[in-house]
Amino acid sequence: MVRAVLDVLAVHYVTSARIDRFIVDIYVPSRMLVIECDGAYWHTRPGMPERDILKTNRLITLGYTVLRLPEAQILSGQAANNLRDLLGVAS
């Protein structure tokens, strides 16, 4: 769903990109933007919230903007609004 929104917005992105020691869900090179799509099942498992925080902090330290989109936000359509706002695209 997130990729479909980026496609409609005509934003170039790379999926499963390697940055530092991480694989990120979506990378938008023109914005140094990392988008992580956090599924409820995986990202609520023991240890995952802490791992997500470490990953986010490392990417920020490297100069990336990190947008974490929880599954509920993606499914509700709120993620599309967040992407439009962040990318400065009118809906």
| SS content category | alpha+beta
| Rg over C-alpha atoms, rounded to the nearest angstrom | 13 Å
Q: How large is the share of residues in beta strands?
A: 25-35%
Distance between the termini: 16 Å
Overall shape? globular
- Counting DSSP H or I runs of 4 or more residues, the number of helices is 5
- N-to-C series of helices and strands: HEEEHHEHH
Give the oligomeric state. Answer: single chain
Helix content percent band: 40-55%
Largest sheet composition: 4 strands, mixed
Low-confidence stretches: none
The count of strands amounts to 4
Mean pLDDT: 88
Explain the layout of strands and helices.
Blueprint (H helix, E strand, L loop, with lengths): L1 H7 L5 E6 L2 E7 L4 E6 L1 H4 L4 H14 L3 E6 H6 L1 H10 L4
Parallel strand pairs: 3-4
Antiparallel strand pairs: 1-2, 2-3
What's this model, at a glance?
With 91 residues, this protein is α+β, with helices and mostly antiparallel strands. The protein is built from five helices and four strands. The mean pLDDT is 88.
